Amino acid sequence: MKKIGLIGGMSYESTIAYYQLINKKINERLGGLNSGEILLSSVNFEHIEECQRLDKWDEAGEILAAHARILQRGGADAIFICTNTMHKVYDAVQSAVSVPVVHIATATLKELKRCDIDKVGLLGTIYTMSEPFYKDELMRGGVEVITPNADEMKLVNDVIFDELCHGEISPASKQKFLSIIVNLKACGAKGVILGCTEIGLLVAQKDTDARLFDTTLIHISEAVNLALAQ
Question: Are 179 and 110 within one domain?
Fold first, then answer.
């Protein structure tokens, strides 16, 4: 079994899901008492969020790169950044280590192509929805990306940082997210990417008839497949 390195803490709520589900899925495939060989290096999200807010992305990249080096020294065969937004500094992290850093948008694109989706809605933090670092990865693969309007973007971002990152699950916020998903579908989206690792804590496929692509689950599946690859 290959050893998986996780850069977590952004937020710790979604990092819990990564650790739990990687182990659960490995156990489902191997049975017995099998679980994953996982290394976790967790950041202080307060510092990372400050870097985001103050546009200090180079500093944030250096922080994550340092954690990637820790994981590589610990024997990680591949590294996963347990957040969508911080893939804005993906190049800084990958250049710091020789083992692969598995890009969450690349994994999502592969799943979209498998499902024959060529136009998709994107939900996430304001950075993920409005900046090109994430959307460009999808568009280079031939997938058109549409995002909510400005007011909806603000609502989504506020719920992520003010509620979900604190483990707060609000039925009212859930209904607002579902309304935004309906709007994206009305604009022609054939599916909707839950492009923040916390959104899956609020909205699941059973809540809507729109096709959802939960990037947390997609990234986790990539980790499991890599861990068990011969």
Answer: yes
In the chain, what percentage of residues exceed pLDDT 90? 99
Q: Which residues are catalytic?
A: 83, 196
CB count in 10 Å sphere of residue 38? 18
Nearest to 223 by CA among 39, 85, 34, 31: 39
Q: Per residue in 27-72, pLDDT tens? A: 999 999 999 999 999 999 999 999 999 999 999 999 999 999 999 9
Strands (E), the chain: 4-8, 38-42, 78-81, 119-123, 144-146, 191-194, 212-214
Domain boundaries, position 195: 105-214
Number of domains observed in the structure of the chain: 2
Quote the CA–CA distance of 39 and 19 in Å, as a whole number. Answer: 10
167 and 139: one domain? yes
